[in-house]
Specification:
The structure is a homodimer. Chain A is of the alpha/beta class. Chain A starts with 6 loop residues before the first helix and ends with a helix. The first copy, chain A, binds a DNA duplex through α2 and α4. Chains A, B: GO terms for molecular function: DNA binding.
DNA sequence: TCAAGCAATGAAACCGATTGCATATATTTG
DNA sequence: CAAATATATGCAATCGGTTTCATTGCTTGA
């Protein structure tokens, strides 16, 4: 439990003032090269480590980035965080992470904690409930950059990082139409969130552009959980006329739908073609394998951190402080292939 | 971008000294109740927030917990982290998280960063490669508590939080024996890590106790990834005599094995009964559903943080500063049920 | 030879909260 | 009523780097 070494201790040892030690350690140009070398050598020997509080206190920044996320334990979000951690470490920043558990109240509490912790910048993906952005005002009014990712909101001062959800949904829906679907349902999440409302729009426009009727009865809004998927499937099974296509806004829910439908004797994709969203690992486990939209989580996380660090380093340039779009892509698998793969599928189901 | 309010500003406003403001804000007993109320009222109005650097600098602690984890984006680990975040927030602590990506080198770098960030305590799950604990010495020698969870190591000064891997593996293997398996293989991870070596032991002892031969040829050690699972399955398919049981140390790998075996025309569980580990969501998606060991990730995370906070608050009691064991349980599903469920299974595969 | 210019270093203030010790007033006790 | 004890508050030092503004000693050019 030895005492910590400070620059004063080093100063005494080397026979210089703390000022010079500080400068030497920070590679200040006005310090003689030999002095720097000697200082860094002695510092190493003595086991010196800088006291970040003292430094932060004086410099008024923390080298810490705050992250507020709806849930940590989803395949997508943990991948995003993983990317963030990577970029943050590379850039010499620490990450403080908290989850809103999809409630506005916790999101506000988290924002407050982040504010008190004086993070240099904030990375936010909004909860289901969030419908105003007051709790981020303290940051914005003090010039602390806030960047939204994935679940974003419009704000004058904030950058958003997203995929083109509308386009992705448009492509997914169009693909179902190409497969011959004419009665396509859509299951999605809370429409307050851009990701879900944009996907709904993409779905809708694709129908309209293909001269198919858009019908509100064909929309189910739920929380996209496993249970919700089961319920949605039950609801679908009760319909007079079954849909022949189903576009679901995440994979967890889509998979749970498929399972329930299969148990009820419905064949996927022959009776109902299904597409999910996120391209989680389960897509390649469910039978039939699930067509899904590949979502670049890790890149999104990295990009968010990099964009933030760029801003913190003063580059008002570089990022037009607006919206950054990432590419996504439709990964086509059996679950949506009505025509050609029917044979293949039966072949698989009867291995002998 | 207004300047921050300090206790000096409040002092001026209320007409008291900064000392009293500080004490009032910290609910110090020597301050008059009315004064406290007035101070907290004015502080609220002025939008005061405490400067944690100044406070930390003076108090010499950070209210921050460091977490080093092999990977963030695994279902199990993200669940653990989720539990940690919950407990930390409740206890008024922040979490700084970094990942070692299974390399010793990154783990050491992470430890250094955590040390420089002066975390109050450290929560660690070891990387595959780690074989010495030098990089944690700086913490230990300064009395900063280090707690290992899941992937732990023996250390005089450190608490470990684990499940009884030996027992869990013993039960899993015994279950396979009960199902009539006599030639059981085991796929597991790097044996440096307790979780894998203990599971191997459990497997071994179960065989011995059931008078079955233990054979090193029946052990495959890999990194338990999806690809590794496929390779392992290929390797198994080339064997002269196929095993009739397979116990895999995680679900990702187990599922990938099952997929590959099925593609090769092997029936699970009829030909090979399979058990995984972790009880990830995919267990209930793969066909047949995978028997697995349920691993209380969220609880483990919560417990780790709570134990740490207890230690930080001086309770040398409470935790016998040794090993804490969590309960795990074998969740039996179709993939391991040779006998009774064969009929049920065929019923499912031929829905019509 | 001397003023100007530069390189290297230091003294002291500062960041904002905390705390040991001292002080001033109020209350109690003998 | 004086002494003893509480009660409430303030002074000033402290935590450990950072930074502004000198200062010192040399080199350089006229």
């Amino acid at each position: 439990m030895g005492k910590d070494i400070t620059i004063y201790d080093i100063a005494k040892e080397v026979g210089l003032s703390p000022t010079t030690i500080s400068r030497a350690l920070n590679d200040h140009p006005a310090v003689n090269l030999k002095t720097k070398q000697r200082v860094s050598e002695v510092a190493g020997q003595m086991g010196y480590r800088t006291n970040l509080f003292a430094s932060n206190l004086r410099r008024q920044h923390t080298h810490t980035i705050g992250v507020i996320v709806p849930r940590l334990n989803s395949p997508f979000m943990s991948t995003v965080i993983s990317g963030m951690e990577k970029a943050a470490t590379e850039g010499g920043y620490n990450l403080i992470i908290s989850q809103s558990l999809e409630t506005l109240q916790k999101e506000q509490a988290n924002a407050k904690t982040m504010f008190d912790s004086r993070v240099d910048g904030l990375l936010v993906s909004l909860s289901y409930e969030t419908d105003d952005l007051h709790h981020f005002e303290p940051f914005i009014s003090r010039g602390i950059p806030v960047i939204f990712y994935d679940r974003v909101a419009e704000h004058e001062q904030c950058t958003s990082i997203v995929i083109d959800n509308l386009q992705a949904a448009y492509k997914a829906t169009s693909h179902l139409v190409e497969q011959g679907c004419t009665n396509i349902m859509h299951i999605t999440g809370n429409l307050k969130r851009n990701v879900y409302s944009d996907r709904l729009k993409g779905y809708k426009y694709a129908l309209i552009d293909n001269n198919l009727p858009y019908n509100e009865q064909n929309i189910i809004v739920n929380n996209l959980s496993e249970e919700a998927g089961e319920e949605a499937a039950q609801q679908i099974l009760k319909m007079k006329k079954l849909p022949d296509g189903l576009f679901v806004s995440n994979d967890t829910c889509a998979v749970s739908c498929v399972k329930t439908l299969k148990q009820a004797g419905i064949s996927v994709p022959a009776d109902v073609a299904v597409i999910g969203f996120n391209n989680d690992p389960i897509c390649r486990v469910i039978e039939p394998n699930l067509t899904s939209v590949n979502y670049p989580g890790s890149e999104m996380g990295e990009l968010a951190v990099k964009a933030l660090i760029l801003r913190l380093n003063g580059s008002t340039e570089g990022i037009a402080s607006n919206t950054i779009n990432l590419r996504s892509e439709l990964i086509i698998r059996e679950s949506s292939l009505k025509s050609k793969v029917a044979g293949k599928k039966w072949g698989q189901l009867a291995p002998k």
